[in-house]
Amino acid sequence: MQKLSIALIAGMTLAVASGALAQQGTYQPFTQPGGAETPAYVILCATGVKREAAPCGGALTPMTVLSTPFVRSGTGDPIIFDGVTTTPKQFAITKPADATSYRFVNPCNVDVRIRKVGSMQESVTLITGTRFLARSSETLGTSAPTFVSIIATATPTTECNPELQYGRGG
After folding, report:
1. Is the pLDDT of residue 11 over 60?
2. pLDDT, tens digit (0-9, with 9 covering 90-100), for 66-99
């Protein structure tokens, strides 16, 4: 009788233990505070409650944007806008078919503004276009401009030759 009791206790212990192990192996999705399952494509932050997560930050919370590396399009050579001064200067440019963005490098010691224009007669002003800070670079999405106009916001003390490089990503 004693052997039977020990066998029953051992069997029950194994059944309970294997059931607990089986429970641990099953998928347990993260849930939001209301109990709804959280979609896999949302960036989540722990709430402090076991297996509960919520989308990180509020609607106005800044988040780091994940991006792909910038890959050059076309021949790989930049378009160099030489001789930029406080007088607007127009340039004809061609965007490669596969380009979705551009990198603008401003090596000048002054800020510059660049704007897409419809012809060589139109020009950027000190209050139009996109401003690029001195000695900086930025990657932006692109349209398909045929002409651009560039102006320096102050008189450069050295040569001012910004560069535009078409590409993808960034």
Report:
1. no
2. 567 888 988 878 999 999 999 999 999 999 998 9
Two structure tokens written together for 35: 């109990």
Which token pair is 145?
């401009």
Q: CA-to-CA distance for 101 and 56, rounded, in angstroms?
A: 28
Q: Residue 58: which of 45, 67, 49 has the closest Cα?
A: 45
Alpha-carbon distance of 139 to 130, in angstroms, equals: 12
Q: Which residue has the tokens 């160099």?
A: 80
Tokens of 81: 């806008």
Q: What is the pLDDT of residues 16-37, one digit of tens each?
A: 555 544 555 566 666 766 777 7
- Look up residue 156 and give its two tokens: 């450069």
* Number of residues assigned to the chain: 170
Helix, strand, or coil (residue 60): coil
Q: Are 141 and 113 within 8 A, CB to CB?
A: no
Half-sphere exposure of 19 (CA within 13 A, CB side): 6
pTM: 0.61
Residue 146's closest CA among 103, 97, 95?
95
